[in-house]
Design a protein that fits this description.
Blueprint: E1 12-13, E2 27-28, H1 49-59, E3 64-71, E4 77-84, H2 85-101, E5 107-109, E6 116-123, H3 128-139, E7 143-146, H4 153-163, E8 167-170, H5 172-183, E9 192-195, H6 201-210, E10 213-216, H7 217-221, E11 238-243, E12 253-257, H8 258-270, E13 284-287, H9 294-304, E14 309-312, H10 320-327, E15 331-334, H11 336-352, H12 355-375, H13 388-392, E16 400-403, H14 410-420, E17 424-430, E18 435-439, E19 452-453, E20 458-462, E21 483-489, E22 496-497, H15 501-507, E23 514-522, E24 528-533, E25 538-539, E26 545-546, H16 548-555, E27 561-568, E28 575-581, H17 583-592, H18 599-602, H19 606-622, E29 631-636, H20 655-661, H21 663-671
Parallel strand pairs: 3-14, 6-7, 6-8, 8-9, 9-10, 13-14, 15-16, 16-17, 28-29
Antiparallel strand pairs: 1-2, 2-20, 3-4, 5-6, 11-12, 12-22, 17-18, 18-19, 20-21, 21-23, 23-24, 25-26, 27-28
Helix pairs in contact: 1-2, 2-3, 5-6, 11-14, 12-14
Length: about 675
C-alpha cells in the first residue's frame, strides 16, 4: 500500500444508509458483523467480575499478584514485595466478610428506580488495599464509590448526600478531613472510616469527638475471621459508580455493571492486534493512573485475568521514573501529557549529542521512522541497540504502551514507537462506555484516527445541521466522507446516571444509542476520525475537561474584556484566550504604562498583552477557576466578533466559526 493509504479495514456498514434519517448506516467491526462480542472465549462460563476474579485466583494461585515497594530504615523506597494470588484472595475474603459482619454496608433503596444497593467508599491513591477492597466488594455484591484523590469539598459532600454511604476506606491523608466534614454535618451519613495506614492519636481523638468509628487496616481485617458466603451477583448488577468530572456542575455518577466490564475485556481479547492475548503470567504493569477513573479501573481485571503482576507507584508522580526503574513493567499505560514529556526529554537529549553519536542517533531515527511509515514496523535489528537508553526510561522491558483519556499527537506517538521499539496504542471511549471502544492498529501507517470499533461496539453518525456536519458530506475529491455526532451502542454501555433519569435520557436515547457529543468522520477504510465536539466542552492533553463558556463568563466580568473566546487544543495541556478588549479601558491602561499609538497597535504590545492576561487571571482566581481552566496565552483582537460575523447580536459566540477563523492565531499562541 502507498504512504497515504491504510491497509486495514476498521469497520463495515451492516445496514443501508437512509438519507432521510439524517444519519449514516450502522457500522461494526468486520469480525463481528452478525453478533457483538460479550463473552471471554477462553472462559465461556464467566458472566460476572466475581466469576472472573475467582477463576483468576484459582488458575494463577501461586503467581505474584500485587506488589508494593518496601520502605528502608532511612525512609527511602526499597524493592517491590509481592503477594501471590492466593494471598490476595484470602485478604479479599477477610475484607468482604468484615464489612458484612460489622454491617458497614446496609441496603439502601434508590427511591427513583427502586433498585437496592450496598455502598462502600474508597478515598486514596492507587495501592494494594484499594484493589483488595474493590475485589472484596465485587465478591459480596457491594457497589464501590471511588473518590478522586483530588476531589473538592463540594463534590465529596455531593457523593455523601446522593448515596448516603456510611463507610469509607481511606488513606491517612484524608481521614482528618473526612472526620471534620462529618462533625460539621456536611457528611451526614459517614459513620465508619477504615484507614489503610496506622491510626494516630490525633485521628482517634477527632473520631471520638465526631462520633465516627475508626479502624486501622489490620484491626479491621481481624473482623473478617468469620467467613461470610459470597453474594449472588448478576451480569446487570452495578459493581461501581464512576463519577464523571464536572466543570459547570457537580459530577454525575455513571453506574457500571459486570456485563459492561466483561464486554470490554472480551472485546479487547478478541482483537488479536491489540496484543492482549500475548499478555501472560510473566507480564507486569505499574498502576499509577487514578483507580477512580474507568480507564485504570478496567486495566485491573483485564490484567489479572491474564495472570499478570500489578505493582503500585509510591504515590508521587514526580518520582514515577524511580518506580519504573524498580518495577520494570512490560506494559505501560499513560496519558498524552506524560508521553509528550518523554518525547520532549528524548528530543532534548538528542539535540545535546555531538559528533558521531548525534549522527548515529539521527540516522537511526530516520531509518526507523521510514520503516514505520512504509511498513508499520517499529523494530530494527541494528538501530534498536542505539535506543536502549530511551527504552530504559520505562524500566527497559516494556513491550506495549497504551495512551488514553485524550488524543495523543501523531508525531509523538510515532516517535515513541521507534524509541521504545514497541506499539503505542491509542483508544477512544468515555466513562459511559466503560473505557475505550475504538482503537487503531499499531502498524497502521496513517496517524490521526482512532481506528475502528471493538467487537462489542456498533456505531453511527448523526447529522448536526447547525454545525454543518452531515452523513451526506463528501471530501475535496467528491468521495463520500460522512460526518456527524458519534453515537455508539453495545453491552459495554453504562446503566445510567444514579438518581438522574433526565440526564440518562439525554445521554441514551430510546433505541439504546449513547450520544457522545463528539463529532467524527468516517474514512473510506471504516476508520473513525474525531474532528470536533458538539457540546461546548473540550478535553486537554492531561485528560481534564474544561467548559469554555464558564471561563468566558468569568473573564467577561473583568473591565478590560468586552468579548472573549476561550479555546483548548486536546493535544495541549492549557487553554488560550482571544479577547476583544474594552477600548476605553485598554487605552487608559496603555497611557498608564507609557504605551502610545493606535488601538490596533496597542493590542499587539507584549507588555499590554501580559498585563491583561495577568488581570484576567486574577479575576479567574477570585471566581474559583482552577489552573486547568485558566488561559495561559492571550491574543488581543481589536475588531469585535459581531462585526466579523463570529458572534450574534446578543454576543453568543459562533464557536466552530471562530475556531476556523482564528486557527492560524491559535496555532501561533500554542507554538510561541
Amino acid at each position: 500500500m502507498g504512504k497515504t493509504q491504510s491497509k486495514h479495514c476498521y469497520s463495515v456498514p451492516i445496514t443501508k444508509h437512509d438519507e432521510s434519517k439524517g444519519e449514516t448506516a450502522i457500522y461494526r467491526n468486520p469480525d463481528n458483523i452478525d453478533e457483538l462480542c460479550c463473552t471471554i472465549k477462553r472462559w465461556p462460563g464467566v458472566k460476572t467480575l466475581q466469576d472472573l476474579y475467582l477463576t483468576a485466583f484459582k488458575q494463577y494461585s501461586n503467581n505474584p499478584c500485587l506488589g508494593t515497594r518496601t520502605i528502608n530504615p532511612d525512609g527511602t523506597r526499597g524493592m517491590y514485595r509481592y503477594k501471590p494470588y492466593y494471598e490476595v484472595k484470602a485478604i479479599c475474603d477477610r475484607v468482604g466478610s468484615a464489612i458484612m459482619n460489622l454491617d458497614l454496608a446496609p441496603i439502601i433503596k434508590d427511591d427513583i428506580s427502586g433498585d437496592e444497593f450496598r455502598f462502600v467508599g474508597i478515598y486514596a491513591k492507587n495501592r494494594e488495599e484499594w484493589v483488595e477492597v474493590d475485589i472484596a466488594c465485587i465478591f459480596y455484591g457491594i457497589t464501590t464509590l471511588p473518590f478522586y484523590d483530588t476531589l473538592g469539598k463540594e463534590a465529596v459532600k455531593f457523593v455523601f448526600d446522593q448515596t448516603e454511604v456510611r463507610t469509607v476506606f481511606a488513606s491517612a491523608d484524608h481521614v482528618l478531613n473526612l472526620i471534620k466534614g462529618a462533625k460539621a454535618g456536611e457528611y451526614k451519613s459517614l459513620s465508619t472510616i477504615v484507614c489503610f495506614d496506622p491510626l494516630t492519636k490525633e485521628m482517634e481523638a477527632a473520631g471520638e469527638a465526631a462520633n465516627v468509628r475508626l479502624f486501622s487496616w489490620d484491626s479491621f481485617i481481624s473482623h473478617g475471621a468469620k467467613f461470610v458466603d459470597y453474594a449472588k451477583v448478576q451480569p446487570d448488577s452495578v459493581f461501581t459508580f464512576c463519577y464523571t468530572s464536572g466543570t459547570t456542575s457537580l459530577p454525575k455518577a455513571a453506574m457500571l455493571t459486570h456485563r459492561s466490564s466483561l464486554a470490554m475485556i472480551a472485546s479487547t481479547e478478541a482483537a488479536d492486534f491489540l496484543n492482549i492475548n500475548k499478555i501472560n503470567d510473566k507480564d507486569s504493569y505499574l498502576s499509577y493512573l487514578p483507580l477512580a477513573h474507568v480507564y485504570e479501573r478496567n486495566m485491573i481485571p483485564t490484567l489479572l485475568s491474564r495472570g499478570a503482576t500489578i505493582g503500585f507507584f509510591s504515590g508521587d508522580v514526580l518520582k514515577l521514573k524511580d518506580d519504573l526503574q524498580a518495577f520494570k513493567p512490560t506494559i505501560f499505560v499513560s496519558v498524552p501529557r506524560l508521553f509528550s514529556r518523554f518525547y520532549d526529554v528524548i528530543k532534548d537529549q538528542i539535540d545535546k549529542l555531538q559528533g558521531m553519536k548525534k549522527t548515529l542517533a539521527l540516522k537511526g531515527i530516520a531509518v526507523k521512522m521510514e520503516n514505520l511509515k512504509k511498513k508499520g514496523e517499529y523494530k530494527h535489528v541494528i538501530f534498536d541497540a542505539a535506543f536502549k537508553k530511551m527504552k530504559d526510561a520505562l524500566g527497559g522491558r516494556v513491550k506495549l504502551c497504551v495512551s488514553g483519556s485524550a488524543p495523543i499527537s501523531p508525531d509523538v506517538a510515532d516517535f515513541l514507537k521507534i524509541c521504545f521499539s514497541c506499539p503505542v496504542l491509542e483508544g477512544y471511549g468515555s466513562t459511559e462506555t466503560c473505557s475505550g471502544i475504538f482503537c487503531q492498529h499499531p502498524d497502521d501507517t496513517i496517524a490521526g484516527t482512532v481506528g475502528g470499533p471493538i467487537g462489542s461496539c456498533e456505531f453511527k453518525l448523526v447529522d448536526i445541521p447547525d454545525m454543518n456536519y452531515r452523513s451526506t458530506d463528501k471530501d475535496e475529491n467528491g468521495n463520500p466522507r460522512p460526518r456527524g455526532e458519534i453515537c455508539v451502542r453495545g453491552p459495554f454501555l453504562f446503566k445510567g446516571y444514579y438518581k438522574d433519569p433526565e440526564k440518562t435520557a439525554e445521554a441514551i436515547d430510546a433505541d439504546g444509542w449513547l450520544h457522545t457529543g463528539d463529532v467524527g468522520a468516517i474514512l473510506p477504510n471504516g476508520a473513525l476520525k474525531i474532528i470536533d465536539r458538539k457540546k461546548n466542552i473540550f478535553k486537554l492533553a492531561q485528560g481534564e475537561y474544561v467548559a469554555p463558556e464558564k471561563v468566558e463568563n468569568v473573564y467577561l466580568t473583568n473591565k478590560y474584556v468586552a468579548e472573549v473566546f476561550v479555546y483548548g487544543d486536546s493535544f495541549q495541556n492549557y487553554c488560550v484566550a482571544l479577547v476583544v478588549p474594552d477600548k476605553k479601558q485598554l487605552l487608559e491602561l496603555a497611557s498608564q504604562m507609557g504605551v502610545s499609538g493606535e488601538f490596533e497597535d496597542i493590542c499587539k504590545e507584549k507588555k499590554i498583552i501580559d498585563k491583561v492576561l495577568e488581570e484576567i487571571t486574577k479575576t479567574g482566581k477570585a471566581a474559583g477557576l482552577n489552573g486547568i481552566e485558566q488561559a495561559k496565552k492571550l491574543y488581543l483582537e481589536p475588531v469585535s466578533f459581531v462585526l466579523q460575523g463570529l458572534s450574534t447580536p446578543t454576543l453568543k459566540l459562533k464557536r466552530p466559526q471562530a475556531k476556523e477563523h482564528y486557527q492560524q492565531i491559535i496555532s501561533q499562541l500554542y507554538s510561541s
